[in-house]
Amino acid sequence: MKNIKLFLNRMKNNWRMKLVSFVIAIFLWNSVIVNQDPVVTRTADSIPVTLIGGEQLSAKGLAIANESSEYLQAVKVTVLMNRSQSKLFDPTDIQVNLDLNKITTTGEQTIKISAYTNEGVIEKVIPESVTVMVDERKNKFVSIDYEIEGNLPEGYFQGEINVEPTSVQVTGPSSIVDTVVKAKFTVDMTDKTTSLLLPKELDLVDKEGNVISSDTLVTSVDSAMFKMSILPRKEIQVLGENCISGADKLPAGYEVDKIEVFPKTVEVTGSAELLEGLTSLPSEVIDIAGKSEDVYTTIELLAPNGVTMLSAHTVSLIVRIKEVMEQAVFENLVVELRNIPQGYTVGDFEEIRDVEMVVPQNTISTLTVSHVKLYIDLSDLTEGEHELKIQCEVPEEFRATGIIIENDTAIVNMVANN
Questions:
Q1: CATH topology of domain 325-416
Q2: Is the C-alpha dihedral spanning 23, 24, 27, 28 positive or negative?
C-alpha cells in the first residue's frame, strides 16, 4: 500500500515528463500516416461528354443519325488517388471524350467513352460506351418559303415581298436530309402599318408540312431576311369629263348628255403624303369633236410618280351624245275625226286643242303647224256617246317627243243612219 501511494505521488509531481511523452506520441502517429498515404476512391457524377473527331467523320462522307441527346449524356467517373491528393479533388479537371475517328463505315457502331485526369487514375466510366447509327453524309438545297398570318388594318396595302436568300443548303445524315422538302417561316401581318425588314428563323419541314427538329442537320444559314412594303391604300374617283376633249366641237344641234365610267373608282397605293392630296387620276384623253353618236371606248389611267394602281389600269368610257332639243307649241288645232264606221254619222263635234312637244334643234325650224295633226280614231265604235283619246301625229323626220295635248279627251256621239 505504501508503494502505490509513492507511485501516485511521483506521477502527480512529474507532469512535465508526461506532456513531452504525449507530444512525442502524436508526432510518431502522424509520421506513420503520412508515410503510408493510402489510395482512396473519389466519384464524380454528371460529367459532360465532349465529342471529338466530327470533322474527320464528315471528311469520310459519314454522319451520325442519332440525336446528340441520345449519346452525349453526362457520365459517372470513378478516380483512384492518394488520400493527400483527394483533398484537392476537383471533378471539373476530368475530361471525358467520345472519339469518332475510328468510325469508317455506316450502320450501328459502338464507341468506347474515354476519360482523363491529371490527378489520380481513372478507375471506371459509367457507361463505358455508347451505340450510334452511322449514315452517309448528304448535302441538299431546298427553297425558302413563307406563310402570312393575320390581315393588315383597313386602308393598308401589302406591297412587294422579297426574301433573301431564296434557298438554303441542308447537310446531315442522308436518311434525315431526304425528308426535308423546304425551309419556311411565318410572318404575322396583324396591326402592321409600316414596311417590314425582319430576320426570320427558318424551320425545316417535310412533305406533310411537319417541322423537322433534329440536331443532326446543319444549314448554311439559320435565318432569312424578309422584306415587305406596307403602304396606305385609297379609292380614287375617275372623272369622265377629264377623259374627253372636243365636247364644244360637236355638230350643230348636238351636245354631250352624260359621261359614264366603269368602274367609277379605282384603288391606288403610295406614300401617305402623295395620297392625301390625290382626288382624281389623270388619263389618256379621247377627242369626240365632230361626233353625233354615242362613243364607246377604253381609256388608260395614268398614275402619278410614286403612286401604284392596285386595280385595273383601264376603265370603260361611254360618252352619251344627244340632239339639242327645243320645245314647240302649237295652238288652236282642230281635232279631226278618222275612220267613221259605215252606217254611222257623228253628232255635232267641234273641238280645238293646244299641243306642245320637244323637237330636235335641227328640225324645229322646218316644223310648221301643217305638219301637226290632232285626231280621234272612231274605228269599231257603236251608237251612243264615247269619251275618246285625242292623238297627235307628227311626221317621223321631225323626231318629236314629249307630246302633251291640253285636255286630251273628247266626247263623240255616234248616230246610226236610218
A1: RNA Polymerase Alpha Subunit; Chain A, domain 2 (2.170.120)
A2: negative
